[in-house]
Amino acid sequence: MELKDWLNSINFSKEDLSEHIKDYPPYIINRCLSGHLDCVLFANEMNRYHFLDKDMQYSFYLNIVRKRKRFSPWIRKDKNSDLEFVKQYYGYSTEKASQIMKILSNEQIEFIKKRLDKGGKQ
Questions:
Q1: pLDDT, mean of residues 34-49
Q2: Which residues of 15-53 are buried (b: 16+ CB within 10 A; e: fewer)?
Q3: I want to staple 43 with a disulfide (CB 3.0 to 4.6 A). Which of 34, 64, 77, 97 is the partner?
Q4: What's the rounded Cα separation, in Å, for the pair 89 and 115?
Q5: Rounded Cα gap, residues 6 and 63, in angstroms
Q6: Which whole number is the average pLDDT over 54-81?
Q7: What are the Cα distances from residue 82, in Å, to 90, 91, 102, 105, 121?
Q8: In contact, 39 and 33? CB cutoff 8 Å
Q9: According to the model, what pLDDT value does residue 122 have?
Q10: What is the DSSP string of 29-66?
Q11: pTM
Q12: What average pLDDT score do residues 64-79 get?
């Protein structure tokens, strides 16, 4: 079973897929449903009771979420190009570079960009 099959079953078709419950991904389903305003509280409840069996979690969603077409893009972190310059300049990891970004001024970041500029066409 694929993720889209589980989500379609919960959101739209209401078809019971319990015979394939070993393939059910509870964390991913919670994350997908938390992107919808009408499902965010249900996802929060499942996060509180994460220790329940997969079958119980799936049955909860199947019976409580109203039938509706839902689509939301996968939530991703924004890419910060300045962060890449700081990582390269200082040789830091992403975590350390993001901490350094909080204390660097715009002038300092521009200085780092100029120092790392290799010239030529891009």
A1: 94
A2: eebeeebeebebeebbebbbebeebeebbeebeeeeeee
A3: 34
A4: 8
A5: 13
A6: 86
A7: 12, 14, 12, 12, 20
A8: yes
A9: 60
A10: HHHHHTTSTTTHHHHHHHHHTTTS-HHHHHHHHHHHSP
A11: 0.63
A12: 81
